[in-house]
């Protein structure tokens, strides 16, 4: 039986790693997700084989444990399947936060079962157990707070004087209590206190962080969850858990660093600075005025342009306007316009958010370009169309040293000959910073819900074609 379990663990590990590799390209990402899913299925099913190797003294509890396992599988699979099928694209970051929290909670539960279920007393194993418990608890409670912030249930950061100092004291208390539990036999009451304080620490660390930084925080907690799972795998001597945990941990760490770099900020700055708290005071006065235009006028200008670059943002996802956008793009292409999409690494609420949104509408992958690949082309674009994006196109990041986002790489939308910005209103972006782009001489605002605005743009282009003649023929 042992060799079957080991072989299945090896297969699961291979599928997880290979699946992750496939996710590196939009063309193979779907296949990679499916392969990784099969790997996780193998890892879950093979865990049931351990039941055949239990000691005789534990067999009376076998049916109870298998029944509980079956209930957990039905509930977990049912809920995950339902959420995966019904979740809106705008709610994807919240779902990721919840699923990530469940992973951290599972790692903490493994540590709790090992600690309270009668650990071996091995200092190394117990140290790893308590470390996994600490990380898993922080990831669980912190991810729940991140979900609440992204879902609009916690709209403002909760901050108080001396908060960082208090968090540091709580962390040191946890380290001391954990060391005490490792060296002391028993200690169930102290163990319960340890888990409760660890959960509280996750809340205390996350509540001061602003909503604009939640995507980075989620990615960081994802890395911590992977680390906690790997530690749990070490405790249980389970290779599949160790490999899965290390893959998730390393991928989450890399993603966190890449996101922080894309925002020109360190992870320390994300966690311990009150970003956005003094954004308005630091920014200063913006010269110029907002210049609204009708959607039809913007559409006609793009219809007769040679090159149009589109920068999508969260507003496009919120309006669920990706299908209407691609309909408009196809009309422009039929008229001979060169159209490309420019994607910022942190556009939307998480990396890949805009890529998934455009893929959902059927936009070909060869039309979608990352910031580094397309930034130099804005100067040759007749029109740049910004839909629901704000901070990632704000030229203050390049010119205003007093701006909180100064130094952050942005899409060079301001270099286009003409800019149209589709925006629901005159509010600030997710980071709470006024956008200097909107006041530029070559920028016009098209106010309204993106779905409605794009419908008007589509109709305006269609109205240019004589009755009974196709767009292609007119072009």
Main beta sheet: 6 strands, parallel
Number of β-strand runs: 6
What's the helix-strand series?
A: HHHHHHHHHHHHEHHEHEHEHEEHH
The mean pLDDT is: 83
Q: Which structural class fits the helix and strand makeup?
A: alpha/beta
Number of domains: 4
Q: Please give the share of residues in helix.
A: 55-70%
Distance between the termini: 69 Å
Overall geometric form: globular
What's the SSE blueprint?
Elements lengths: L1 H21 L6 H19 L14 H25 L5 H25 L6 H28 L12 H21 L4 H19 L7 H23 L2 H24 L4 H6 L6 H5 L11 H9 L3 E6 L1 H5 L3 H13 L3 E6 L9 H9 L6 E3 H4 L8 E5 L8 H4 L18 E6 L19 E5 L2 H14 L7 H4 L1
Parallel strand pairs: 1-2, 1-4, 2-3, 4-5, 5-6
Descriptive keywords:
475 residues; alpha/beta; 4 domains; six-stranded parallel beta sheet; 19 helices
Structure report:
This protein has 475 residues and is α/β, with parallel strands linked by helices. The chain has four domains: 1-51; 54-83; 87-275, no CATH class; 291-474, TPP-binding domain (Rossmann fold, 3-Layer(aba) Sandwich). It contains 19 helices and six strands. It has helices spanning 2-22, 29-47, 62-86, 92-116, 123-150, 163-183, 188-206, 214-236, 239-262, 267-272, 279-283, 295-303, 314-318, 322-334, 353-361, 371-374, 396-399, 450-463, 471-474; strands spanning 307-312, 338-343, 368-370, 383-387, 418-423, 443-447. Helix 5 packs parallel to helix 7, helix 5 runs antiparallel to helix 8 and helix 8 (214-236) packs antiparallel against helix 9. Mean pLDDT is 83; it is low at 275-282.
């Amino acid at each position: 039986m042992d060799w079957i379990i080991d072989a299945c663990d090896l297969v699961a590990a291979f599928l997880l790693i290979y699946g992750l590799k496939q996710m590196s390209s939009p063309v193979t990402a779907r296949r990679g997700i499916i392969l990784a899913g099969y790997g996780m299925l193998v890892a879950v099913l093979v865990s049931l084989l351990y039941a055949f190797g239990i000691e005789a003294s534990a067999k009376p509890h076998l049916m109870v444990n298998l029944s509980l396992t079956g209930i957990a599988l039905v509930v977990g699979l049912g809920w995950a399947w339902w959420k995966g099928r019904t979740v809106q694209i705008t709610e994807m970051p919240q779902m990721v936060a919840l699923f990530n929290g469940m992973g951290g909670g599972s790692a903490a539960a493994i540590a709790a079962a090992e600690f309270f279920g009668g650990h071996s007393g091995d200092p190394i194993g117990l140290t790893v157990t308590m470390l996994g418990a600490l990380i898993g608890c922080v990831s669980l409670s912190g991810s729940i707070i991140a979900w609440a912030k992204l879902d609009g249930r916690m709209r403002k950061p909760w901050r108080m004087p001396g908060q960082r100092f208090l968090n540091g004291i709580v962390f040191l208390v946890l380290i001391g209590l954990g060391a005490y539990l490792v060296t002391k036999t028993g200690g169930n009451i102290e163990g319960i206190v340890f888990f409760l304080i660890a959960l509280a620490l996750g809340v205390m660390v996350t509540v001061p962080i602003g909503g604009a930084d939640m995507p980075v925080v989620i990615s960081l907690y994802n890395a911590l969850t992977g680390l906690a799972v790997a530690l749990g795998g070490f405790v249980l001597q389970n290779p599949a858990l160790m490999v899965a945990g290390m893959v998730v941990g390393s991928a989450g760490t890399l993603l966190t660093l890449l996101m922080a770099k894309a925002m020109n900020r360190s992870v320390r700055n994300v966690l311990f600075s009150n970003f956005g708290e003094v954004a308005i005071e630091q920014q200063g006065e913006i010269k110029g005025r907002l210049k609204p235009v009708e959607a039809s006028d913007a559409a006609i200008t793009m219809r007769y342009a040679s090159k149009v670059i589109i920068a999508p943002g969260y507003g496009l996802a919120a309006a669920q306007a990706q299908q209407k956008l691609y309909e408009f793009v196809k009309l422009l292409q039929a008229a001979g316009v060169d159209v490309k999409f420019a994607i910022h690494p942190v556009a939307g609420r998480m990396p890949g958010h805009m890529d998934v949104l455009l893929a959902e509408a059927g936009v070909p992958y060869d039309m979608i370009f990352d910031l580094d690949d397309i930034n130099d082309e804005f100067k040759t674009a007749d029109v740049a169309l910004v839909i629901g994006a704000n901070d990632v196109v704000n030229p203050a990041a390049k010119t205003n040293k007093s701006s909180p986002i100064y130094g952050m790489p942005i899409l060079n939308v301001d270099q286009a000959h003409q800019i149209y910005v589709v925006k629901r209103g005159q509010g600030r972006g997710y980071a709470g910073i006024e956008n200097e782009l909107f006041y530029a001489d070559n920028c016009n605002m098209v106010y309204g819900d993106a779905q409605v605005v794009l419908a008007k743009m589509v109709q305006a282009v269609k109205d240019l074609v004589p009755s009974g003649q196709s767009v292609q023929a007119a072009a």
